[in-house]
Amino acid sequence: MIPSSIGILELLVTNVGITISAVLTIGMGLFAFIKGHRSATNALFFLMCIPLAIFLASHVIGINLIDPELSRFAFLFHMLTPITFVASAHLIAVVTNRAKQARTIIIFFYTTSAALIALFLFNTNWFLLPSAPFLYFPNYYVPGALYPLQTLFEGIVLVYLSFILCRSYTEGDTVQKNRLWYFMAAYIFAYCVGLIPILPLYRIGIDPIMSALFGLWVIPIAYGILRQDLLDVKIVARSAFIYVVLVIASTAGLVAVNIANIILLQYYPNFPIWIVPAVSSLFGIGFGIWIWFKARESDVLKYEFINIISHKFRTPMTHIKLSLDELRTQNADEKMRAEAIERIELANNSLVELTEILMDTSRAADTSHFYHLHETDLNAFLIPLLASYSKELQKRNLTFLTNFAPELPPVAIDTDRIGSVLQILIDNAIRYSNDGGTIAISTEVKDKQIVTSIKDGGIGIKKEDVPRIFNQFFRTAKASSIDTEGLGISLFMARRIVERHAGALSARSEGENKGATLSMVLPALKLKK
Asked: In sequence order, what are the residues at sequence separation of 6 or more whose Cβ sits closer than 8 angstroms to the Cβ of residue 253?
């Protein structure tokens, strides 16, 4: 059977789509495994992706082979797909914290899938017969007598998977529901699109070309894993998603350009054959250069930070050295010794603070650091935090004025990270306030978001400096004169942490010596009825 020109195009689209799906599947599986290889969730996701990628690769090979026996040999890797179904059920059991309860069933599923593979390997004709042409495919699956056993088993696993997923969704809190939504969307898409190539095996006349979109299923499920487990959701999930989409789009664009070139040459044989390939090659080179520059940005920032932090460490270390030298002198009296010890203590405190900032920044850039979201009442969270500043307020004669909104909806936060953000905002308000002043802390609900504002009456910010206040290493001239040891990264780090919570940080000031208001906005969770 010689396919028509439309059939050739459909076969090409299917080949490109399934190939991209295989690469995307194994790529996202590897990415999740490398970023969290100690996590059972990430490891199971990788296990789920391996047999699926093998099936996709064997599928695209089998549909293009002319020899029926060779095509069937390629299609035989389809017998590995039950492992993907079982690993999916195991993954959902782990994600929903039901792994212990489901242990016996999961073991039974793994054992049954291994038995099915052994059965079909014993006699491959029971699984698939020699391939035969179908639509525009040179060869396609021809099921054997026992092939329906695999379909039945996969259906049973799918029903069980759907049951625990739906049950956990209905019983879970808001944070759990938000995470499981991505898994539900992924599985609905995956099994609806993934069933399309199987339907013709049961003589259901449907064109399998839509299966070319199958690879997109890994994006929501990978995001569902990474958004909960990785601290740097902004970089890992969003940037990875953007780069994956760009790579797929550019690949599809290059394929489309070359298809257009083939059609163009059919209608215009005298058209120069080198023009379209040259243009597409230049596009590919340009895209590669762009990716290289984007990857290089992080190295530049790391280099800048290392230079600044090394200078900041020298000052307290120098103070310690000079104070120790002073203590070693024989004519040092008690007053001198007390002053030297006090300087050492202050320098030590500075080193501890610098080390903590350095570690926090390192964690912020380390995409393998785990995130732990908890449903939290910000009003209740703020009360003990503000109480811890009592001695510092007394020393500066400062006062906290609180105005908390009643019945504040909860938020989903990593309490350690958001606690650090609030400490940074409060520390800034105290540091740059005038002695005897007041600092107003308030919470309110605006457009389904929780706004926490910290307002001081201190040195303020020039209007032209407000847009840059959250930039890395930026400090206003007046802030630098008051706190000479500042790094200019605290607010930058705070903004990144809040943005990873799908929130935002903002600053307002009427000018120098007119105070400033820093506001943290976080999405509110819906209250369970």
From this structure: 283
